[in-house]
Design a protein that fits this description.
mainly alpha; 1 helix; 98% helix
């Protein structure tokens, strides 16, 4: 019976050692899980911050595009006004030259009649 008690005692010692090793392994896994949980939380925060910044950047971009579109529309309107003013000035010059030419011809004809 003594040998049987010794064998059981050795088995119990091995089981206790295995339980201690498993406990250490579980503790190490728990530390890794805690570290990974912390990393996931940090990454989540970074992603959330990036999403917020992306939304801000997108809104800033849209605002800028709206201002540029408005400015382009104003520039097109001003260009149309400038073109019309230029046409009016060209028409006035053309009419002035035409009228001057008509007056010059009349004067020439009157002088020729003498």
């Amino acid at each position: 019976m003594g040998a049987n008690v010794n064998a059981q005692s050795n088995t119990i010692n091995v089981l206790v050692a295995n339980i201690q090793q498993l406990t250490e392994n579980v503790a190490a896994v728990n530390q890794r899980v805690d570290a990974l949980t912390t990393n996931v939380a940090e990454v989540t925060l970074r992603v959330d911050n990036l999403a917020i910044q992306a939304d801000r950047d997108h809104q800033t971009f849209r605002d800028r595009m709206d201002r540029l579109a408005e400015s382009a529309a104003q520039n097109r309107q001003l260009a149309a006004i400038d073109r019309q003013e230029f046409r009016n000035e060209i028409r006035q010059i053309w009419e002035y030259l035409r009228d001057r030419n008509v007056t010059y011809r009349k004067d020439t004809l009157k002088k020729a009649d003498f």
